[in-house]
Automatic annotation (TrEMBL):
CDD domains: Delta6-FADS-like. It comes from Mycolicibacterium hodleri. It comes from the Bacteria. PANTHER family: DELTA(5) FATTY ACID DESATURASE C-RELATED, FATTY ACID DESATURASE 2. This is Acyl-CoA desaturase. GO terms for cellular component: membrane. InterPro entries: FA_desaturase_dom (IPR005804), Fatty_acid_desaturase (IPR012171). Residues 70-333 form the Fatty acid desaturase domain. GO terms for biological process: lipid biosynthetic process. One of its GO terms (molecular function) is oxidoreductase activity, acting on paired donors, with oxidation of a pair of donors resulting in the reduction of molecular oxygen to two molecules of water.
Amino acid sequence: MAIADVAEYAHLTDSDLDALAAALDDIRRDVEASRGARDRTYIRRTINFQRALEVASRLTIATTKGRRGWWLGTLGLAAAKSIENMEIAHNVGHGQWDWMNDPEIHSTTWEWDMAGLSSQWRYSHNYRHHVNTNVVGVDDDLGYGVLRVTRDQEWNPSYLFAPLRSVLLALGFEWGIALHDLYSEHERADNDVPKSEHNRALLRKIGRQMGKDYALFPALSLKRWRRTLGANVTANVLRNIWAYVVICCGHFADGAEKFEPETLENETKAEWYLRQMLGSANFDAGPVMAFMSGNLCYQIEHHLFPDLPSNRYAEIATRVRALCTTYDLPYTTGHLIKQYLMTVRTVCTLALPDRFTENGFRPPRLRVEQLQQVRAVS
């Protein structure tokens, strides 16, 4: 069930909460104070590498013969698109590089290589999701309105199609995100812009995106346009699937807790920190997989410090994990495949009415719950 009192659930006293928040504030100050040339070099090299990889991949698709060359170019293009979306655009959109005062690498100017508008995504993601992480009925990213990922979401017959929806969402993730962000803009309370203007803005972006991938580059390939068109479609689908898997593991895997809306009432900064730690999940990754996932293998650290540079998350994770040990808090992580299969099991199980599954589906007991039981007995 969703958590109503975060501090009580985590068995932390007021002094524990204050000390935890102070330690996390220290991490933020340390990273902010040490940002500099190393970080600038990292993001600029990442952008240059991504652009070079995209150019090389498109040339490989257009100039080579046979399936081997096509697959090599297509996989390279999918990788380039994943890097652009996750390690660059997602993190730039969070303002992680705004401190550089570079007009190109800035949250307000970067437009990503996806169907949706970055400006619409920033409101939906940075505010509605990150501020209200995993709060049932408030966080729009909790199941994206089409998946049931907790029993606290009331079951309705449409959820019977959730397994199929999850497959379709994975294949067309960029389109799902585009519509998701558009609906968030429509519901924005302080938005004076007519819905029709948001719709037109999104349609213009979709036109530019489809024109680039599905008209311009195939046309440049002349007689080989079918080869290029097929590669672009495949690369986009592969990028969509990868982004979907990574993001689902961050909040739908076992151990990523859900919360009642009352947790937001008079929530302190310390309680917000704690909710991010309990509501997020990592997956184990080496440097290459971390880079390809936009460093979202460190989802816990990302939710604690969404605007700190992603290349710092590995070092931040060491300190966050130590704090979890100190305060007997769970640090949810595991192999990527395991984490994702947990989300598949949850989506498929909760697609059925509760009366069919409530006795047969129990997520593994979390460390914090085990500690509560031990303390109660003692």
